[in-house]
Every structure is written in structure tokens, then in C-alpha cells.
Amino acid sequence: MRHQAxxxxxxxxxxxxxxxxxxxREHKAERRAxxxxxxxxxxxxxxxxxxxxxxxxxLVATQAPNNGALRLLGGKAPARSTLADANRNRPSELFFALxxxxxxxxxxxxxxxxxxxxxxxxxxxxxxxxxRMRRWFGxxxxxxxxxxxxxYDPAAQRPVFFALTEASINDITAAKTLLPIEPGATYVxxxxxxxxxxxxxxxxxxxxxVTRLKSNTVLRDTTPRAVPHGAGVLSDCEGYLPERxxxxxxxxxxxxxxxVVIRIDTGKVLRLFTNDLNSTAEEIAALYKERWxxxxxxxxxxxxxxxxxxxxxxxNAIRTQIAVAFIAHIxxxxxxxxxxxxxxxxxxxxxxxLLIVQTHIFVRRPIAxxxxxxxxxxxxxxxxxxxxxxxx
Length: 392
Hints:
Helix content is 39%, strand content 17%. A hairpin with a 5-residue loop joins strand 9 and strand 10 (269-274). Among the domains are: 7-95 and 309-371, no CATH class; 194-279, no CATH class. Strands 1, 2, 3, 4, 5, 6, 7, 8, 9 and 10 form a ten-stranded mixed sheet that branches. By secondary structure, it is an alpha+beta fold. It contains 15 helices and ten strands. The protein has helices spanning 7-12, 17-26, 38-51, 56-63, 67-71, 80-89, 92-109, 134-137, 171-177, 196-204, 281-289, 292-304, 315-339, 350-360, 367-371, and strands spanning 119-128, 139-140, 143-153, 158-166, 186-188, 208-212, 220-224, 233-240, 257-263, 269-274. The chain starts with 6 loop residues before the first helix and ends in a 21-residue tail after the last helix.
């Protein structure tokens, strides 16, 4: 009888293990292995994230009866103390480097269609950690929390950059020190990233951006442009930002920009600023409206990735669990893309696929049949899926 892979194995087949092994060596992650190596640790956390288990006890209790399925992939069901030690001691930098490598591989393989070439949304969100995390991440509005900083690709519906900092770190501070600028891309962000020096660096990298102006920022030497009727655009003009900043510093962004004033559906008036002088005012407004997609993504991950309860109280354990949760999200999206190539699975959403994975993670049945039980059985594919053939 032919071996049928579990749902977990079908997802793990998407993973670039050659990249994983190289990063393990780079970060010297095997120094405190003690019989529980990096691959076994990663597979345990990945299965827990995909299965929706929160906490050490539920995860260990769920994986113990499925130790055979884990061993086929090079993993094993750990003891609770073994997993707790690994979460505390194995460097979380390994999993963050793995997450960034995974994001780079995916987005290099899939250069997206036209929507201002490459559109990138930048924002951050807070994650509550509980009172025991105060020494690591501090407080936000009286709650112990950390902050996730994200660059999101709305066309691919996945992040392209991820960072985790203390709650007290300002958005613009993280952007200037952590977030890379992708030359030629179009960035959309809100008032949290209000820094003319950073805007000038984006403009120097041939990037276009759309953001908001504060009420006390008035353009000088303005030239009005024609305003379309019935599009929610109140005014459109070109001009220059203030020449001087606070403390008599010279403004580094001395290039002509553009102010587009719009009224949104709620009736609120927004002053948008961009260095794009060629697009229409409606296109600028539509780009800023795209920013809502990253808010929906934050809501989705908080509801589905189960990062509300943590398997440790150390800074390293928290960072490791969050990084693996985002890796799980990317793998689910890749599997969703693979399955929706078939006609029968067109209506399946990533959220539905994740729900199926959570309830059938160690079931030996093709994911396509779980998505659509009436679909005709497909012959097994020869070897792993070729999603990483070009990755180095």
C-alpha cells in the first residue's frame, strides 16, 4: 500500500531545508541541543502553531501520540521540560533569520503584477504578553506588550519584512534602523512615520510614497492642479515642504511634492502627501486606501495564529514562538496558492485552509480532498513541490 503523507508533511514539503541547515550553522544553534536538535525544535513549534495548541502542556500532549509521524520528518515529540529549555536557550535569531529568508525567497519568486509596480504597506501593531513579560518588553497603555513592525505586500497578501521590538520603540525609529528600503517600490504609511529625513532617503532610492500631513505642516510655493469632480478629491496642488525644521535645522526633503486633500466615506478630511507628480489624484487616494489591508492582516493573524498565550516567559521564548507563527502563516499561504490552482478549490480561503489544517494536522489524506471531498483523486506528485528551486 502506497504511503499517504499527513497534512503536516504536505505543508512541511514546502519548506527550504537547505536554507534552514545553513542558518543553523551560522547561528551555532546546536551548542545546547542536548538530544533535541534545531530541526526537531522547529517542527514541534510549527506543528503547534498550525495545530492551534497554546501552551506547553497542550502541545506536548497532542504530539506525543503522533511521534511516528514526526519522526518521518526528522522530528520527535519532546518532553515538556525539554521543549521549555529549548525555547529558553536556542537563539531566537535563528528563527527570525529563517523568517526573513523565507520572505525573501517567496517574494523573489513572485514579482508582482502592476499596482504601482511593487506596493508596500508599512505599519505596526501591539501584542499583549502578560505581566511576566514586563522586564523584557515594557508596557503600552498600562499593559505589558511588544510591538510588531511589518512591511506588507497587498498583491501577494503576505508580509515582506517583519521585526519585533519593545512596546516603547517609536514606529519611525524602527523604520529608520530596521526596515530596508526597496528601490523603486511605492510605500504607503501613516503619521507614525512622519520624518522628512526618512522621506528624503526614500526619494533618493527612486521610491514613491503616500502618507498624511500633520495639521501644522503647510506647503510653500504651491501650484494648484485640476480637481476631478465627484471623486472625493477636494484639492490638489504641488509645492515644497517647510524649508526649516525645529531648532533651525534645514529640511533634507527639498524636492517638490504634492498635497491631495480627500474626504473619505466617514466624512473625515485627510491631507495626503506624495512625491508622485504623475499619477492622478484618484490614484493617490486609492493607494492610501490600500493601507487598510495591513490592518485586516493584523486582525487575521491575531485571530488565527494563536499568539495570545506563550510557551515561556523569557524574551527568547516569546520571540521564537512569534517568528515560527509567522512562518506557519507563510506556509499556509503557499499551500493555499498550490491548492487553488485546481478548479475545485477556487472558493477555499487561507482562513478555511488553516482551520482544516488545525483539525486534521496528522490525518493521512490529501489536502485537496479535505478542501473539496467531491474532487477526483489526483496522482501523487513526483518529489517535493518546486517552489524553492531557484532559492540560494
